[in-house]
Specification:
It contains 8 helices and 19 strands. The protein is an alpha/beta fold. Helix 2 packs across helix 5 (about 150-165). The structure holds flavin-adenine dinucleotide. The site of flavin-adenine dinucleotide has 38 residues, from helix 1, strand 2, strand 3, strand 13 and strand 17.
């Protein structure tokens, strides 16, 4: 930016992982940024709010997510260094599939093509390396050495602190849904104040359908998702992050994170739950989720079959048709960008999303067809895992 030139201005609405990183990258690129969130960064209702999130580059044949995850990991490490906080644990990621799983074969091929260190393991190799796992029903596996876990809420908080250090103004206020029938966007806060900027980025996760019923509407379907934290046996270090990787059991539709920060052994249910209203939903986990997780633990991690439930959270996925993100202009307004549709896998990509948003606003990038609104419908046809 030339000295003396007025900075271009942008308002980013939403301080979840997508909005926080958009603010960081835009400010670093020389924009004057205001970051507005109704409830505060990674608040208890937001999709970015849990203690931990899985990071991995393995994504089947979806090389775009593999390359974004690699780029993003470098940025997460940069943020961890800058903030002096251990945000990332590269404890490895283990992908479990049925014998001969086409998804695992595609994952291995993409990881190889992208130069990501990984190993293919059969069931015997998995249990010999991780005797904590039960062998019954175990098929093939891939171990990705630099996968792992990120301390999610802390990471968003660190991104917002960094954004402030780059001059971003942070505000806690609710933005009203703009009138989508008007020829130009008018963006107001709930108290009537009008926000002025050259560009607007709406990174409002599961709230996007309510903010833009016409442009987004049913193209993002927020679903209720449950995660459970089980207590590990006393004096038993086998379930800590230095002894076990994060794992995804694709056939079972469950994933988990070892006992990070002694918070408990996390089990997440990846099947899409019922619709949820992110503002009003009570966040009480159902007995079905506990029973599903326990039945799974009995088979896959038998030492935890009777483990007590220490903590549980209800969050929401903001699902698009296929699971591909939405990062596109509002169809009516060229200065309004819609950024969301993380679809249960977006967290790790936050830094790459922020970079792409910055490149789009600077005119350095074109809208990626997979992230276009045009390709999204109201149907559920999940294709990204
Ligand atoms: C249970 C669960 C497990 C997951 N596991 C993983 C994982 O292991 N790995 C992974 O990579 N991803 C994972 N994800 C997905 C990932 O967490 C989400 O895709 C990501 O956090 C979405 O971030 P976001 O910034 O789009 O939305 P959010 O975090 O929801 O942020 C949106 C923000 O917008 C604000 N906002 C909304 N409306 C307004 C308004 N009108 N005015 C002002 N502010 C507003 C909200 O307050 C909120 O803070 C998981 C998600 C869930 C729910």
């Amino acid at each position: 930016m030339t000295q003396g030139m007025t900075k271009r201005s942008v308002v980013v609405v939403g301080a979840g992982v997508f909005g926080a990183w958009s603010a960081v990258r835009l400010a670093r690129d020389g924009w004057r940024v205001t970051l507005v969130d109704a409830y505060g960064p990674a608040n208890g209702r937001a999709s970015s709010s849990d203690h931990s999130r899985v990071i991995r580059a393995g994504y089947g044949a979806d090389a775009i997510y593999t390359t974004w995850a690699i780029e993003a990991l470098a940025d997460w490490r940069w943020l961890a260094k800058k903030s002096g906080d251990s945000l990332v644990e590269e404890c490895g990621a283990l992908f479990l599939g049925e014998p001969g799983s086409p998804h695992l074969a595609a994952t291995a091929a993409t990881l190889t093509a992208c130069g990501v260190t990984h190993e293919r393991l059969d069931a015997a190799a998995v249990v010999s390396r991780y005797p904590q796992l039960g062998v019954i029903g175990l098929g093939d596996a891939i171990y990705e050495a630099r996968g792992g876990v990120i301390r999610a809420r802390r990471a968003v908080a660190a991104a917002v602190t960094t954004a402030r250090a780059y001059g971003v103004t942070c505000r806690q206020a609710r933005v009203l849904p703009p009138d989508e029938s008007s020829s130009a966007p008018v963006v107001r806060l709930a108290d009537g104040e009008r926000l002025e900027a050259e560009q607007f980025v709406f990174a409002c996760g599961p709230w996007l359908p309510a903010l833009f019923p016409e442009a987004v509407g049913g193209r993002i379907r927020p679903t209720r998702q449950e995660v459970l934290y089980f207590g590990v046996p006393a004096g038993d270090g086998r379930f800590a992050i230095d002894r076990l990787p994060v794992w995804i059991d694709f056939a079972a539709g469950l994933y988990g994170i070892p006992d990070l920060d002694t918070h408990g052994f996390k089990v997440g249910i990846d099947h899409h739950g019922p619709p949820i209203d992110p503002d009003t939903a009570d966040r009480v986990v159902g007995s079905d989720a506990i029973a599903t997780a326990r039945a799974f633990l009995a088979r896959r991690f038998p030492a935890l079959m009777a483990a007590p439930l220490l903590d549980a959270r209800v969050c929401q996925y903001e699902n698009t048709t296929s699971g591909d993100f939405i990062i596109d202009r509002h169809p009516r307004w060229s200065d309004v960008w819609i950024v969301g549709g993380g679809s249960g896998h977006g967290f790790k990509h936050g830094p790459a999303v922020g970079k792409h948003v910055t490149d789009l606003l600077a005119g350095r990038a074109a809208v990626e067809p997979r992230f276009a609104l045009a390709g999204k419908s109201t149907a559920a046809a999940r294709a990204v895992y």
